[in-house]
Design goal:
The chain is an alpha+beta fold and 217 residues long. 25% of the residues lie in helices and 15% in strands.
């Protein structure tokens, strides 16, 4: 809703990326996770069946829904749409939310992914923990007119957990959703392992307690 020059004036960087999901926002106070995973066996044409990567997005949503449930927030999916949503009847728990968020389902986590020709996932999700929500007014999130965004902080107030606590909960939920074993390792080890070849049977989800979760399949 503003041009690139105005974004620059506000200190906002604009990046064009090759994934689905239309325009979104990343900023301080969000938990951003970009899983890099082999999503399954390729078919006879050397491609990943569509059902496999649609199922991947649905599992991402389930992992985030379960993460939010652990902090007392009831969220869910919306038919035909991607992301994680809080329904209007939750507005009673959101005294600081503006009226628009009391009239329609509000998105608390956005998802935008790409799957390479080799069947490896790229990009991922952004969960609104405690970002500056006014920045969402600068875009039409995911291209969905009339669909507001909401944060955990708006719903929980002063009880909102810190990013590190949410990251650890999300890593555990992710491992359960994808039936992976979870091993906590330093972020430096995760980055080093990314440069080394891994067998297709690798079955660990990695995360650093000091940083955001990383996944590897």
């Amino acid at each position: 809703l503003i041009d690139v020059q105005e974004c620059q004036r506000r200190g906002i960087e604009v990046h064009w990326v090759d994934r689905g999901g239309d325009v979104t926002y990343h900023g301080p106070g969000q938990l951003v996770g970009y899983p890099i995973m082999a999503l399954g066996a390729l078919d006879s044409t050397g491609r990943l069946p569509r059902a496999d990567y649609v199922a991947y997005v649905r599992r991402l949503e389930v992992a985030l829904i379960n993460t939010l449930a652990g902090f007392g927030i009831v969220a869910g999916q919306r038919r035909g749409l991607t992301g994680v949503w809080v329904q209007p009847d939750m507005a009673s728990r959101c005294p600081s939310c503006p009226p628009a968020k009391r009239l329609a389902p509000a998105k608390i986590a956005a998802i935008g992914v790409k799957v390479s020709a080799a069947g490896v996932s790229q990009h991922g999700f952004a969960l609104n923990v405690a970002p500056h929500m006014d920045d969402w007014d600068l875009i039409i999130g995911c291209g969905l007119q009339g669909s507001p965004s909401v944060s955990m902080e708006e719903l929980l107030g002063s009880d909102v957990p810190g990013l590190e606590q949410v990251a650890e909960a999300a890593a555990l939920s992710f491992a359960r959703a994808f039936d992976r074993e979870l091993e906590w390792v330093p972020a430096a080890r995760v980055l080093a392992s990314a440069a080394a070849p891994h067998p297709a049977s690798s079955s660990y989800a990695y995360s650093s307690p000091q940083g955001r979760p990383h996944a590897q399949g």
